[in-house]
Amino acid sequence: MKYPTRLSDAVHIMAFIALNPVERLSSEKIAESIHTNPAYVRQLMSALRKGNLLLSTRGHPRPELAREPRDITLLDAYRALEGNKPLLHQDTHTNPACGVGVNIQLALRDCYDCVQAQAEAAMRRITLQEVLDRYAARLTGLEGHKETPNGSQDSSRGCSADGSADSPEG
Q1: What pLDDT does residue 55 have?
Q2: Is the distance from CB of 55 to CB of 66 less than 8 angstroms?
C-alpha cells in the first residue's frame, strides 16, 4: 500500500525554497531533491500558490515563499493541498441493514472528529521555521539524539503526550 506523501513533499518544496533563496529552482531541480517527477512538483507548487504560501511565475525558476517560514504552519500547507478533507476516512459501504454496520460508523465518526481536532491543533502550532530549525540541528548534530535500548534513535525534542510539538529549548 502506498501512503500519501503530498504534505511531506509540499513541506519539502517550501523548505528547499527557503534554504536556496538565490538558486534557480526549476521543478526539475526540486524534483531531484524529492526523488519524484517535475510534473508532480508543479502540481504541488500550484496548490501552494493557490493557498497563498508560494509565489512563482511560470517559466521563471525563482519561486519564493509568500510569507516568512515562522508564519507558515503545517495546517496551512495541509489546507492548501487538501482543503477541508479529513485525515481519517470511514468506510461508507457498510451494510445499512446491519445495526453494527450503521452505528459503528457513527460512533467512529465521533472518534475521528476528535482525532481531527487534535491533529489540526498540533499542526497549527508547528511552523515551517520549526521544521527548518530541526533540519539545521540535524545537520550540525545538535539534535541531542541518544540511542535507546532497542537501537533506535530517540530525540530530545519531539511531541509531548498531548501531541503538541515540544519547544526547541526542550
Answers
A1: 95
A2: yes
